[in-house]
Amino acid sequence: MKNIWRSLQRPIFILAPMDDVTDTVFRQMILTTHKPDLFFTEFTNVDGMLSAEGNHIVKKKLKFDPVEHPIIAQVWGNNPDHFYKSSKIIKDLGFDGIDINLGCPIPDVVKKGCGGGLIGNIKLSTEIVEAALEGSHHMPISVKTRLGIKKIETEDWVQKLLSLPLSAITIHARTVSEMSKGPAHWDEIKKAVEVRNSLKKETLIIGNGDVKKREEGLLRIKETGADGIMIGRGIFHDVYAFATINNKPVEISVERRLELLERHVKLYQKVWAHSKPYANLKKYFKIYINGFDGASLMRVKFMETHNFEEVFSLLKSIRFHTQIIIDKKRTI
Ligand SMILES: Cc1cc2nc3c(=O)[nH]c(=O)nc-3n(C[C@H](O)[C@H](O)[C@H](O)COP(=O)(O)O)c2cc1C
Hints:
Blueprint: H1 4-7, E1 12-15, H2 24-33, E2 38-40, E3 44-45, H3 46-50, H4 52-61, E4 71-76, H5 80-93, E5 97-102, H6 107-111, H7 122-135, E6 141-146, H8 154-161, E7 168-172, H9 186-198, E8 204-208, H10 214-224, E9 228-231, H11 234-237, H12 254-272, H13 285-288, H14 295-303, H15 308-331
Helix pairs in contact: 5-7, 8-9, 12-15
């Protein structure tokens, strides 16, 4: 199997995994704005993948459309045997690689010794990585981690991770305790790159934390020597976060915003109408309806909808009234 991490041109720009947000529908929407080099799924529990009760939940997280390639399945847990078995499933589903979450700061996850709770535990992390490698018949394996649990231990942790057969290490430049608070420590990404270089390893280092868009990511790469950048919340503020158009932010007209929102609703209806509640869709409205006069008032109207029919009829009425305003302006 070709190693996707090796075949991508650097710098590599990646849409971050964001649970309950970056599902197949949202990823396909980002394809219509500007395609990142690589997608990750939301994090998926390996125990759930193997249990009858959990399987219907995790199936949604692993759903993807072939247009989303290259795409990496992100998994979490702490039982190597479950990683072995779930990696076989991931391979059969046609993913391009497996990413192991070693950074999630959710207290329930950390307490169980999973996600960020695995930082520093190189023995169990090694068993997990080897199990994933074997179970998947040597798919590319990567990890997404943080700088430490309570205190920053970048050099020590990265050095240990570099002893594993990993294609890439994505580092969210905060500790587990910091959650998402305070600015990301980008100087630590530089240190991680230096450790990698001094050990002459080929493992790619991807930096993550607070990058809003591509231009900012390019500056971070210049400062740190990282091979790529992962952007998460930046996409909430700008659905064109991965685009570079003459170094200027992409201007999005209100009509284009409505068109994107309508496309998202239609795709959500097609993919999830029978398996996710309508209310789940509302979190996306702010992403499209923002950045213009009257956006917050318009958003309130969208938030008041209860089903697909109401949102389509609201879109129709907004377009009708916007047209009247445009026509009036033309006649003045
Ligand atoms: C709503 C939300 C859900 C997230 N879910 C995941 C996840 O499933 N797996 C993961 O590795 N990180 C997850 N993260 C962390 C992001 O991938 C990323 O590391 C973090 O947001 C910092 O990057 P940013 O500043 O570009 O957003 C999540 C973050 C948010 C805001």
